[in-house]
Amino acid sequence: MARVFVYGTLKKGQPNYKHMINTAKGLAKFQGWGRTVEKYPLVIAGKYNIPYMLNIPGTGHHVAGEIYSVDDQMLQFLDEFEGCPDMYQRTLMRIEVVEWEGKGGVGEARAAAEGVIECFVYSTTTYPPEWVGLPYHDSYDSSGKHGLSYVLRESRD
């Protein structure tokens, strides 16, 4: 099992969460909430209002999200879903555990107790330069006060 940190439309209550609980795509087990140890710019960009974490460490905010343990099948699905490696790149990042619900072995408990774990995160280095000038968010909600509602894939032209 691999750990994945999601900060956008794959979180609980967001438009693409349905994929995280679809066992036909693999297994994803919710472990807890966290935030990036380093600051990153989280922007909402493009005509479909997609959340992107720009891989510019030290800029922006500590980004909040959810931590999952996923099997190889779900990790492969997420790579495809996230357009990896073209649109997003899957990289290891240090995530501060804010609240842990995970039920795992001794290693899981130790990692949670230490407060920082490594997770795969889908961020991007392949973005138009003007995105750096967009507003930075510390968390994402598709129906947030930003007014930029996410457009589902099946609704895109």
Automatic annotation (TrEMBL):
Q: Which family does it belong to?
A: Belongs to the gamma-glutamylcyclotransferase family.
Which Pfam families does the protein's record reference? GGACT
Organism of provenance? Strigops habroptila
Domain named Gamma-glutamylcyclotransferase AIG2-like: residues: 4-102
The name under which this protein is listed is Gamma-glutamylaminecyclotransferase
The GO terms this record gives for MF are:
gamma-glutamylaminecyclotransferase activity
Q: Which UniProt keywords apply?
A: Lyase
Per the record, the gene is GGACT
Q: What is its EC number?
A: 4.3.2.8
Its catalytic activity? Answer: epsilon-(gamma-L-glutamyl)-L-lysine = 5-oxo-L-proline + L-lysine
Task: Give the matching PANTHER family.
Answer: GAMMA-GLUTAMYLAMINECYCLOTRANSFERASE, TROPONIN C-AKIN-1 PROTEIN
